[in-house]
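Please check our next protein.
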Amino acid sequence: MNKFWNWVRNEDTGAAELIFNGPISEDTWFGDEITPAMFRNELSKVCGDLTVWLNSPGGDVFAASQIYTMLRSHKGKVTVKIDGIAASAASVVAMAGDETLIAPTGMLMIHNPSTVAFGNKEAMLKAIELLDEVKESIINAYEEKSGLSRSKIARMMDEETWLNAKKAQSLGLVDGILFASGQPQPKPEEDEPDEDDENTPKQDEPKEDNLTAMSYSRAATMQSLMQKVSAERRGTPVDQLMSRLNLLKY
């Protein structure tokens, strides 16, 4: 069976390394996913320090929560190294590292959770309420890692924020940049007032130059994602498809 992760052994140190590459899924639908339950079984066989090489566009929010918790509970230092992208639910997994590093070319993205719901007005309101609670649970992971205020993190999620390596480090969402010379820069203190504090004047955030800041089009990103989802779901039985639509995605 193919799976979105694989174990290797570092030839120099003998330490265990986890290659985490691909989408995160709660259940297997097409035979190429792996469940957190199976992931837990293999993780329990690994002792000591662990390095996680992370490159994932995200996926199921609850599956990511389980993997985050497993890594946080691991007996030994967990080092997460983002070598490609840690987007959406995968950015939550990145927060599980005792030390989180990112490649100079790596990207981290955070946004609001989403789902598909159907039914009457009450069902829609329940779906909105659930999404609000899931967002708060995700903020917990970012807040603990970075020390940023919840209101700032919430705004970043609302805006679907893409972060290059330097920006991610300056916000404290990663601890350092791979291959960088010298020691990692210290995390900056929170200097932006909370959004709900109306009496505190807001300060403009410092602007980065074009060489260090990158932004992506939400429309282009969504179009690319929907093309992949459409291709993936071709030929899927209707009952399986409807069940899958109800999964919370992040």
Q: What stands out?
A: Helices lie at 36-43, 61-73, 89-94, 121-146, 150-158, 165-170, 218-233, 238-245.
